[in-house]
Amino acid sequence: MNNIIENRTWRYATKKFDNTKKVSEENLELLLEATRLSASSYGLQPYHIFVISDQETKEKLKPVSWGQSQLTDASHVIVFANTTDFGEELVDEYLQNVSSTRNIPADGLKAYGDFMKSKLLELSPETKSVWTARQAYIALGNVMQAAAELKIDTCPMEGIENEAYNEILGLTEKNLNTAVVLTIGYRSDEDATQNYAKVRKSKEELFTLIQ
Questions:
Q1: Domains of the chain: which residue ranges?
Q2: Cβ(184)–Cβ(80) under 8 Å?
Q3: Which residues is 163 bridged to in the sheet?
Q4: Fold that domain 3-206 belongs to in CATH
Q5: CA nearest 174: which of 87, 56, 47, 41?
């Protein structure tokens, strides 16, 4: 079987982690770099990612995560926090990065910046928040697939109290909101769900080929 398919078949939403096993610093750095390289609309990456290994913080988050044991048993908890609102600074900071990285004069990027601002700044605050959260989910997908390549288990989690996360992590004053959480580590032998057959729609149901 092709490794791409094999790794995705191996991956599942881990329900019970082995709390004695930790993701190495080397592998954590690989996961974070894979996340950093994720695609995002216009390349703006309108989110911030918190990587939590501190057990005390994980204990605080567990009660506001429906009491799920993944929060405290996993090696790390990754919180994807989307920017709740933004102005011209989101585009301007990105263009400064482009200018520096590609050695392009900033003046040469003005037209592109104006184009992005014309599309984004007219959005309502609610639409901006939805859009930035969607970008965070793209990054989530990337890190999950990278983890599967490294045989690191993951569990994406929406069963959380977002506002409580924001309070515990001090996100609101940073113009951030918890979009989604990912726990990473290594599956416990006691997690029976690892032996379940993967249930997905058939190709005939899921895909329409327009040729």
A1: 3-206
A2: no
A3: none
A4: NADH Oxidase (3.40.109)
A5: 47
